[in-house]
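Standup notes
- HV: blocked on the assembly model, inputs below
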Amino acid sequence: MPPRIAWLRYGAAMFSMTAVSKRYGPGFALGPIDLALAPASTTALIGPSGAGKSTILRLLLGLDWPDAGEVRFDGAPLRRADLLSTRRRIGYVIQEGGLFPHLNCAANVGLLARTLGWSPARITERSRELAERCQLPVDALARYPAELSGGQRQRVGLIRALMLDPPALLLDEPLGALDPIVRHDLQAQMRELFATLGKTVVLVTHDVAEAAFLADRLVLMRDGAIIQQGSARDLLDAPAEPFVRPFMTAQRSLKVSA
Ligand SMILES: Nc1ncnc2c1ncn2[C@@H]1O[C@H](COP(=O)(O)OP(=O)(O)OP(=O)(O)O)[C@@H](O)[C@H]1O
């Protein structure tokens, strides 16, 4: 923990946003947002629907641009001219994996590496290594996305995002479409993966328990603003606003009568 704080103090955040704002028509205004994410940290963006969580991910990835303020990645401002090389250094996973349906999974995960001139042998070797790490049966790579289960598709999406060994991973509701048992298993595997790979991870989830399980820092948003940042314990013990505690504890736990 102390090294992370030191990194941030010296301005070496992996991602940062300074006074970033973004407006979509008259209905939604994000920011101004200030955010600094330390290398190798895992951050979960949480908050009600429409709070601006996915917008933050898109701004970090350069899929969208702020109206004002600056987004930096790995020490440099995000610039349209460098976008392709920047995107190769940030893995991005969306719900259901975002795979191309007309390509088999091996082709999906190897697409970018192939355009970068990797040899077929190197692509196969890397795909197999990642399949093992992500607990995907290697023969699943030969199938089309529609022939896999939701959990397997999500693993393929993760393998694709990790293919070029990027220092950062952005995950937008990666487990949102999965049934509870598969989701539970994948949460545990992802936590293990994040701990061993040392990537800077930013994920969006609607599930507060999942956020607390996977991330060392939660960023709670509402109406385009960051309401509070900290550990789940910080948010529960010292809520910055009356809204924080009910939001954190809103999810139902199972109660059955005898
Ligand atoms: N390209 C766009 N054009 C217009 N409005 C947009 C665009 N992208 C997002 N918005 C609006 O910005 C607001 C924030 O959207 P965003 O997807 O970031 O929220 P979110 O917190 O991720 O929500 P959810 O949890 O429902 O996915 C919403 O009101 C949305 O309708």
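- HV (later): unblocked. The CA atoms of residues 108 and 158 lie 11 Å apart. The pocket of adenosine-5'-triphosphate is lined by residues 24, 27-28, 47, 49-55, 204 (CB under 6 Å).
- Next: hand off to the docking folks.
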